[in-house]
Structures are given as C-alpha cells and as structure tokens.
Write a structure and sequence with these properties.
heterodimer, A: 164 residues, mainly beta, 6-stranded antiparallel sheet, two-stranded antiparallel sheet, 8 strands, B: 139 residues, alpha+beta, STM4215-like, 5-stranded mixed sheet, two-stranded antiparallel ribbon, 2 helices, 34% strand, elongated
Chain lengths: 164, 139
Amino acid sequence: MALPNKVLPGFSAALYCQPTSSPTPLTTSALSTVASVAAIAVSGNLLPVEAIPAFGQDDAVASFAIAGSRQSDKIPVQAAPTSMTITAAWNPADSQLLLMREDAKSGVIDRTFVISATDGTNIVYYAFNGRVGEFKIDSAPGAEAKCIFSVHPRGNQYGWSNNA
Amino acid sequence: MTTQQNPTRYVEVIQAQLQSVLGNIPVYALMNRNYATEGSGFVTWQLRNVHQPVYTGTTQSVKGIDRPTFQISVFAQRANAALTISNTILQSLHGYSGMYGGSGGIYVAKTDILWLYNSYDDKLGLYQIFLDATIDIPT
C-alpha cells in the first residue's frame, strides 16, 4: 500500500498520543518509520479531539537587508513544527485527556503524538515529539464542556510515513 | 469518547417526567388529538433533534453530548386552563436539572423551555399552546 491518493476529508484525520505517564518518545528516525508510528496510532491511544488544527511546519525566514540595496532578501530557514491548540469534548475520566492534564502540569514530559489520515485503505502519518503547554476547561453552557490543550513540538523531532 | 444514546430511553423518561409534573392532566405521546375531549386540558409531546455532534477521525465514539428537543403541545377547552398547564410546565421544568423518569431514569443537566406560541382551533374547540423543551444529557 502507498500514500492515500485522494483528496481527503478533514474529518478523516485523527490524533493519537503515546500511553503511560512517563513515555519514551520515538527517536527522530523512528518518527519516520511506519512500524513505530503505526504502533502508537491505535484506538486505545486516541485523543477524542473535535478537529485537528493545522499541522506541519511553521513558516520561518530570515530577512536580510543591506544598507543601500533596493530590496531585502528573505531566506527560508529550517522551520519548527507547528504548535497545535486542540479542543476535545471533556470527559474528566478519559485516560488520554488525563495524560494531557498531567503533561501540562509537568511541562517537561516529552511524548510522541501521531496524526493519521486515511482514505479507508491507505494511511498517511505525521508524527512528532512534543510537550503539553496548556490545559483549560471551557464550560460554556450551550454544549458539552470543552478541554483545550496546546502541544508544542520539539525542534526537528517529526517525521512523515505511510503504510506502504 | 462517548456512547451513542438510545432514543427509546428518552421517550420513556420524557413521558414519565411530564406525567410526574402534571399530575392528573393526561399526557400522551403522539396520540391523535382529534379524539381527545378532556375539558380541563391535556398534553401531547413529540421528540425531535436527537443528535450528538460527531468529531474528527473514523472512530465512531468521538462525539459530544446529546441535546434533543421535545415539543410539548397543550390543549384545553378554556384558554385559562391551557395557560395554567403551560405555566405548570415552565415552573417545574424550565432550568430543571436532575433525573427524568425518577431514580431509574436519565440524568438531565439542564432543561431549557422555549414557550413558542398559543393558538385556537375552532374545529376542535381547543386552545393550544406549544413549547419546546431542550435537554442536555451527559454521556
């Protein structure tokens, strides 16, 4: 099998995180290895999020301007993975959301997160290591309570893979 | 993660709760009101908008809570009787948080009642009042 070769619905994306309170995040090479990543993308590790926010790399440039020249120069630099602010329906006993809560409390736990998107047969994975930097509950009374947390990826610790 | 709720349970507990609130006033689920003749009024109701929002990913259990609405229709031969019944419903259920259908029923976090409109049907000779009740059900 290969990459999904279709335009995918946004709905098809799902977010998983490594289990246990003191995980060992994947190495950089393992983040691009489907066998390692797919082992995390299982239903028991699913985070029940409402929608997957934008993921991938931030835009990063260095701008140089030399006095007397007409134009500055914008040079792309190695871009950090994008931070993700995620909203989930809040079940106070959900085991994965409890991991997010405790990660936010700690602030220094590195954990591997995996985003999968599928066309029903083939799956593409984006995996990264990150720390949780926010955990809030929004209890606006018109719907279910929302749990909002932010994941900040570590620099250079991400990879793409598929179930080829 | 959450479970998909069963509308059959909603129907059972809504009937039980309305009957509990209204005492001797008859409560019918989807009866043919043309055959009802109770002079002091009666109430019918029907359930709609059963829906838990579905969130991302192909795992079916990633959902939010259900907030279904049941419409309550109040009928009476006298306007005052219909208004009194509607007020009984408002006083008892608007903002109500607790069990529907007694201890074996469903916990409802909030009941929100919208008093829609009143009317009169000259063929039936009945005053009518319609209310929408939206209930928040934790799942």
